[in-house]
Amino acid sequence: MERHFEHELESLKGNLIRMGSLVDDQLGAACRCLFEGDLNRARQVIARDREVDQFDNLIDGQCQNIFALTQPVAVDLRLLMAALKINGQLERMGDIAVNIAERVEPLIPFREFLLGTRLSEMAQIGRIMVRDSLDSFVHGNSMLATRVLVSDDVVDTLDRGIFHSMVAEMNQHHERIEAASHIMILSRHIERLADHATNIAEDVIFLVEARFVKHMAGGEQQA
Amino acid sequence: MQRHFVEELDALKTNLIKMGSFAEESIAQSIRAILERDTILAEDVISHDERINALELEIDDAVVDLLALQQPVATDLRFILAAMKINNDLERIGDHAVNLAQSAVQYAERPPVRESDIPRMAQITKEMLRDSIDAFIHGDAPRARGVLVKDDVIDDLNKKILADLIVIMREDPSSLEQALELARVSRNLERVADLATNIAEEVVFIAEAQVVKHNVEEKRQAARRI
To answer: What's the CATH number where B58 sits?
Structure first.
């Protein structure tokens, strides 16, 4: 029984890692499409979200089975709960990749304008946060997780900066109103991506140090 | 032991219902604050978020205790796992209520713009939230399924509102800030509707042991492949 449980837990962890790298791929591809104006690949990203959803269902089912068939206690229980939550975060990150891919088309005529914003810098930080949060989970590294929490403030600041500069653009160049509003929305999506990475990092810290950092910062999620 | 378990489960349910009513109230009030330009009400919503956050942590702890000490099986296990997710969804709904209330404060500073679909979107979102919470309280899966259907209506409304707002901004650049505020409102409503949909999916899961998110057939295919 004990053996079986460990095997199940390893398999669960393996699936979470695979899902994480799929989501990371999706985010990377979505960002590349956006900045390169590649509509065909954007469509592939949208189509591939099905695979992310399949992982979500699979991992959920796996967690339920482990709960039902074995009797996890203390440490394992926390690991399972974290796995369930991280799964949910990853699924939402996958949705964000789709959201980004969906804005590729309307922004194609405004590529130069898009590249002139700080969005790609923001996306880069967001993606590093995603990877760090997943690595911190895989290796139980709470130091790495803490770094994610710090980066979240940087992303929030960038989001606000982009918002204000887009408002200024809209005021000066009325023909850019539509493009600027797409960029604002993208900025918000990346800000949310960073929030999801932060949630994972908080779970890791909780897992490792059994400490609740949630709500302590008092920060609100902006959507 | 057994008696104790039933009591703890009841306490969990009661707390979730309380959490649901907090979230529902915050959303209803923040929407009213926007439509009636009531900044005092908006400030109320913002200051009340603390109690939702505190309750979320309390419920999470209760879930851990129940799972660790009682080793629940079958229906009870399904309920407890779903409770954990619903708890998280409700906390996020509370965050969106705060976002909406902040928009209400901003929006009240300048004259309104003529965007006509926001009240309807707000109404449907509120209904979805109320239905998903009621469906949870009464274990009413058909009612939960009703929520799932409405999510598409909300997505379409969100897109339409954003397109309309872009037209408004183009025609009258002086309305820019106000139009952007409404775009934010629309997006937050869309997120609340999404979260209500998640709750409804969990209710169906508890009642029918059936996964309705994404697609069950896809799950089977994935299981075969991996």
So the answer is: 1.20.58.220
- Which tokens sit at B4? 């104790």
Residue B220 dihedral angles phi and psi, to the nearest 5°: -65, -40
Section A181-201 average pLDDT: 93
> Are the C-beta atoms of B40 and B107 separated by less than 8 Å?
no
List chain A residues with CB under 8 Å of B59.
none
Q: Establish, for the pair of chains A and B, how many residue pairs have beta carbons separated by less than 8 Å.
A: 108
Question: Is there a domain that residue A219 lies in?
Answer: no
A73 touches chain B (CB under 8 A): yes
- Chain B closest-CA separation from residue A41 CA (Å): 23
By residue range, what is the domain housing residue A188?
2-209
In a domain, A38, yes or no: yes
Choose among B117, B119, B120, B145: nearest CA to B131: B145
| pLDDT given for residue A210 in this prediction | 63
Asked if residue B226 has pLDDT above 50, the reply is no
Instruction: Give the CATH number, domain containing residue A68.
Output: 1.20.58.220
CB contact under 8 A, A67 and B67: yes
pLDDT tens digit sequence for A119-163:
999 999 999 999 999 999 988 899 999 999 999 999 999 999 999
Query: What is the distance of C-alpha B177 from the center of its chain?
Result: 26
Check CB contact of A15 with chain B, cutoff 8 Å. Answer: yes
The residues in B 99-118 lying below 8 A from A, measured between CB atoms, are 99
Shortest Cα distance, chain B CAs vs residue A118, angstroms: 20
Quote ipTM for the complex: 0.71
Residue B177: Cβ-neighbour burial (10 angstroms; 0-12, 13-18, 19+): middle
- List, for residues B39-74, the tens digit of each pLDDT value: 999 999 999 999 999 999 899 888 878 887 777 777
Domain assignment of residue B48, given as a range: 2-225
pLDDT value of position B6: 85
Query: How far is A114 from A183, CA to CA, in rounded Å?
Result: 7
Residue with tokens 């053996």: A3
